[in-house]
TrEMBL record:
This is Phospholipid/glycerol acyltransferase domain-containing protein. Keywords: Acyltransferase, Lipid metabolism, Membrane, Transferase, Transmembrane, Transmembrane helix. The keyword Hydrolase does not apply. The keyword Transmembrane applies. GO terms for biological process: lipid metabolic process. GO terms for molecular function: acyltransferase activity. The chain crosses the membrane at residues 46-71, 83-102.
């Protein structure tokens, strides 16, 4: 859409904020027949799925808010109870929505390696309390998957102080795709402080979305400079880098703008949905003693031709004084095979201002813009 060309990244030509257009479908008899079945079955399937989701929400209230609340007298027991039920309910929810099988693999970006790190499986990645998981952000489905996998502490970034605050999974889902808040009116911590607190109290791993807002999954946004006090290799905090990618033929699970309820309804109309999970191989983690920037950059010719190469996007992060963040962005681009843009959270705010203005959402935009100021 040319009216949104202002938010087309100059270096890549990608518009990361617009809902992605589905690939052109075939016109074969089989393809047409499949589309007809999808259109007929989809609405019925969505009704059933949404009904089951409401049942899961009721179970969440019962097991987490109800029984979990009673167990608050014994915090360790409460955390264990809540973590178990959050994982169970999140996986059931993913299955109900159509994510029947979730493929996961470890990926190497070292010289001489291919895309997959041998036969290593995601289960070989050990994640503990206080570990920092760096993830790209493109959908509220991200939150469900991460809850199922880790029952972690989610974070919201204060872009004015480059610190984070802890939020629940429900808050993370609610914030996904919303008008970004640059400042946070709550207690915040540096990322290292948050990691140390979570590790000391056994609160679980910490999930960070350094982009600060969602993209459409076609490219990575500029990182908010959260890692200025980190070093490579990082010895105090264990870092994991995780890429979430969605494959689709008709409707994309990624969510950047628009009505979230309508998006979820359309997602539930899909016969199935696909999520691919890619981990940076553990021995190449930024907190691994074997980590080497030279090996990472030199891998660009074999592992990820356009994604693992430092460019204007990573230079912009480095120019903010966050050279480690620039390297982490490069690593995430390498395993996800996504190009990096120089657009960031403030560009998303400007995009949403314009989008709301064109679609009649001026009042909401103005109200939230004042809040950000």
């Amino acid at each position: 859409m040319e009216k949104y060309s202002r938010w087309r990244d100059a270096g890549t030509g990608i518009q990361p904020f617009l809902p992605p257009v589905p690939p052109r479908s075939d016109t074969t008899v089989l393809s047409v027949g499949t589309n007809v079945i999808r259109l007929l079955v989809g609405p019925v399937l969505a009704i059933v799925r949404i009904a089951v989701v409401f049942v899961l929400l009721a179970l969440y209230v019962l097991f987490i808010s109800g029984i979990g609340g009673i167990l608050s007298i014994a915090p360790p027991l409460q955390r264990t109870w809540n973590a178990i039920w959050k994982k169970i309910l999140a996986r059931i929810a993913l299955f109900v929505i159509g994510f029947y099988i979730i493929h996961s693999e470890n990926v190497s970006v070292r010289r001489g390696r291919g895309h997959s790190a041998g036969n290593q499986k995601q289960a070989s990645v050990s994640v503990g309390s206080g570990d920092v998981i760096i993830v790209n952000s493109s959908s509220y489905i991200d939150i469900l998957y991460l809850t199922f996998q880790f029952s972690p502490l989610f974070t919201q970034i204060d872009a004015t102080t480059n610190q984070v605050r802890f939020i629940t999974a429900q808050e993370a889902i609610a914030q996904c795709g919303k008008y970004p808040e640059l400042s946070v009116d709550a207690k915040t911590y540096s990322l290292k402080e948050a990691s140390q607190l979570a590790k000391k109290q056994g609160l679980g791993p910490i999930v960070v979305f350094p982009e600060g807002t969602t993209s459409n999954g076609r490219a990575l946004l500029k990182f908010i400079p959260l890692f200025k006090d980190f070093s490579l290799p990082e010895k105090e905090v264990k870092i994991h880098i995780l890429a979430l990618k969605y494959e689709y033929n008709h409707f994309s699970p990624t969510y950047t703008v628009g009505n979230k309820a309508v998006h979820f309804l359309k997602l539930c109309c899909q016969l199935s949905n696909t999520l691919l999970v890619k981990w940076l191989a553990p021995n190449e983690s930024p907190s691994s003693p074997n980590f080497s920037i030279a090996n990472m950059i030199s891998s660009s010719s074999t592992a990820a031709p356009t994604a693992a190469i430092p460019n204007a996007a990573t230079d912009a992060v480095a120019n903010d004084g966050d050279t480690v963040g620039a390297q982490l962005l490069t690593l995430l681009g390498g395993i996800a095979r996504l190009r990096k843009t120089s657009l960031g959270i403030r560009d998303k705010i400007e995009f949403l201002d314009y989008y709301f203005q064109r679609t009649g959402g001026v009042k909401a935009s103005v109200k939230k813009t004042k809040k950000n100021k």
